[in-house]
Protein 1
Amino acid sequence: MPTLAKREHLKNLPFLFKKLISKNSVKSNFLCSIDLIAVTTGPGLEPCLWTGIKFAEELYHKIKKNNPKSKIIGVNHLKGHLYSFLLSKEILKYKKLKDIFPAVALIVSGGHTILLLMKSLTEYKKLGETKDDAAGESFDKVARMLNLPYPGGPELEKVAAKGNEKAVNFPRPMINQKNYDFSFSGLKTAVFYHLRDNQKNITAGQEFNISKLDSAINKADIAASFQQAVIDVLTAKTIKAAKEFKVKTILVSGGVAANKKLRLTLKKEAQKNNCAFIAPPLKFNMDNAVMIALAAYIANFKKEKIKISAKGDFPL
Ligand code: KG4
Ligand code: ZN
């Protein structure tokens, strides 16, 4: 609901900003010391993006009065995710950033599932992406079927930890296809049919109601089996790309990259294939402002010019 989402942004942005500058750790001359303001211009819901842009522009005009050299820069949200691996301590092990590349980068969020081949920090090409639901979206939708709160990914992960991932053999869509694309909508439907067909307290002719799940249904087993299916597909495609392009490193980012089992599986498989594995620290996987500042820093360093206007479908 874009209008409601915009209203929340209008309410929360000034509140968050006030909270930030009132922190003890923020010095009184903080505002004057800002020389670069980063604002997400897409992809996303345009009314929300515009709210952010207007807020950032107002701030920029205030700051410019005291600091005429200050600048404002637009950032692609996905670049924020892509570069968030730089926030990991693993990076400190490298003498030169270029030793990380070539790399395969998997971005898994609520809106995107993208596999990239990176030659350097700024040279990359898309190998594949989801043809329907994003990985995070499928976690959210399955979590809703299991009556878990939003965002469903972290909740489903908690429930899955108590279940058996071999309990239900859900499909692994596109796992054997030669391309690097993904599809998660069929998997979500398979979970729905499994729930419908395993209701014990349903009488003939009665309609299946997802909000009244049978208590005999083992939510933990279903969550664990679903999560495993997603992990298997993401890992298989990432490792296949890593092998084909003989990369040195596997990178993963986006909200779903906070999933501990996914991180662990990717790490193990990376090691088996003599690849390094780098993921952002847990708190920087889901949307955050630090990754946007980081992407802005890189864009500014590379003198990239991005028009400051909302682009709902801004590609990577
Ligand atoms: O990157 P993000 O914060 O927002 C987008 O750019 O979409 O990703 C949010 C998505 C949600 O779908 C959420 O359920 C999922 O990431 N997510 C997880 C976990 N934590 C967040 N999915 C699986 N396991 C998690 N631990
Ligand atoms: Zn995101």
Protein 2
Amino acid sequence: MSVPSITLNDGNTMPQLGFGVWQVDSETCTDVVLKAIEFGYRSIDTAMIYGNEQGVGNAVRECGLPREELFITTKLWSDRHDNARLGLEESLQRLGLDYVDMFLIHWPNLKLNKYVDAWKGLIECQEAGLAKSIGVSNFTKNTLEDLFAYTNVIPAVNQIELHPLFAQEEMRAFNASHGIHTEAWSPLGQGSLMNEEVLGMLASKYGKTSAQIVLRWHIELGNIVIPKSVTPARIAENFEIFDFSLDEDDMQLIATLNVGKRLGGNPETADW
Ligand code: NAD
């Protein structure tokens, strides 16, 4: 089973399936990331605010793989929107790495209103070789249009909340129309989807679990996906999604779960 590779708008490639580590403490993080790498994951999604960059970095060094075989993402917090390069240098120090594969603005923070400056800082980071690719997270149509108006670099990805209860069709289409890949955070709806009847039915039909059905739905839609788990059996299960595909009717059935329900913050109002 191999993870499809997504070619980004800057020519770099990124695994379509990665491993998220929000709410995993730094010490535990080293062990679970090592497990994930052992099971085949090569892309890890962390952030300054998760407080576990050090744990991720330790796993990168301990896993025995050459650095270039791994794809490490971290994110800029709002307290460094006015100096993104410093923010990244601090993250790199915690990670113990000399570059990241992807650096994202974590939230636009409309109240602070420094996201265009932050984006200019990310462009500088990419030019300096500290980040191979740069992108954003939780950006809306308006905030992306500001980046288009004031800079000439289009984000490679926009990482947004996306799962069957919140399918984000408009935002996915907007991203795609600008060559931006959509990356789904909370792809499993933070685990809240597991008892949905439709998913249980499809799980029986395909001989898979509800989590695998949801992750396969993301893959078929073309989303980059970064499920999180600290349980080794689930980390392995979430990787085993490349030996089957959902037919069109079943994709439509999953689409009926969309009720526009956010589980996390709203980028229009979040002041973090
Ligand atoms: P998720 O949708 O990946 O759900 C994780 C939870 O689902 C687990 O804690 C567990 O309870 C359950 N789960 C996982 N695998 C399962 C399985 N096989 N069977 C049953 N239950 C299972 O939620 P998440 O952690 O919020 O999102 C994933 C990643 O996205 C994060 O770790 C983080 O890296 C990223 N993220 C980014 C942002 C952002 O603002 N950019 C926000 C939230 C999350």
